[in-house]
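Recap from last week: sequence in, structure out.
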Amino acid sequence: MSARSWITPAVARLRTTHPYVVDAALAALVLFATSLQWIFPGGKDEPLSWQGYLLGAATAVPLVWRRRAPFGTACAVSVATPAMAVYHAPPPDVEYGGLVVLYTVAALCPPWQRRVMLVGWLAGVALTMVHTDKTEPFEYAFHLMGVVCAYALGMLERVQRAYTAELEDRARRLERERAADAERARTQERARIARDMHDILAHAVSLMVVQAEAGPVVVRSDPARAEAAFDAIAASGRDAMAQLRRILGVLKEEARGGSRRLPQPGVSALVELVRQVGESTGLRVELRTSGEPRPLPPDTEVAAYRVVQEALTNTVKHAYASTATVELGWTEEALTLAVTDDGRGPSGAGGGHGLIGIRERAAACGGSAEAGRGPHGGFRVVVRLPDDDRQAALG
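Predicted structure tokens:
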């Protein structure tokens, strides 16, 4: 086992231990180090006394409260340490308690307390050593460097703690942002599925209603046509049920934590859509294409199909039209869809929910939609869907 493998868990356990336990152990360690000078004096000319030992203990015992009251603890140790040095029984070789409180003040206290304590200790150490006899020059450097190093270590601890807190805060923010992004994605997916269900049901029901209304009229005069109408109703219902079953399957997959996407029709499926509408309703629908067709981003493909589907559904439901034209205009920047009929168009300004859905789908792809009277009468819906992938590639 490497040293790193057992040191890291030990440090983690130490950080989770109650502060009083850790600080009491530290105070006991400092008291033991200070007692060594009293038990093993450096020479026969160094006096020993219980008063000196008590002063030495006064530099260690307050460390129990160093994290609860760092500045107060530092003041108590700062008074006891020079008193012990001046009393000189025995003189302190190292200011153990002072080094600990300087580290603590630098790590925990506000700026003015840190500055006061650092300046006070530097001045106090210098004056105490001047007062002490037989002080060598290197001892000045040793004690002053000890003060500066303890303070510097405390500042490094402060910086490290602030850096760790910033990283933890950033991690929490990123986690919240990821959760928010996931929730937005779920909301958008639910809205997309709701629009798809609306389009599927509206289209299928419109075709079924048209055929159901025509069936009783021709059931006696033209049984074959009536049978075809009922077959069209059944085919529309089966197609709607199949698409709804796929959507519900995706919803169940998402509820179990999956991420499977619903397979969606695209521009290539418009040929079948136009044929189905023409055969089911008797509406003469023509599909025209200009420009060079090419693959589009998946969302744009779905939007193009649903826009045409919704426009034709509105034509069947509201326009009382006999003909309709679907035009696809391909350019390098966008696909323009135009659905024109010779009917009367929707009543009221701005259209109903179908036109709102068309505008929402176009806006979701960064495009635009317009609806109004056609150039030769009737009603016309024009949608422009930009090709973002191609523009990005050209850019």
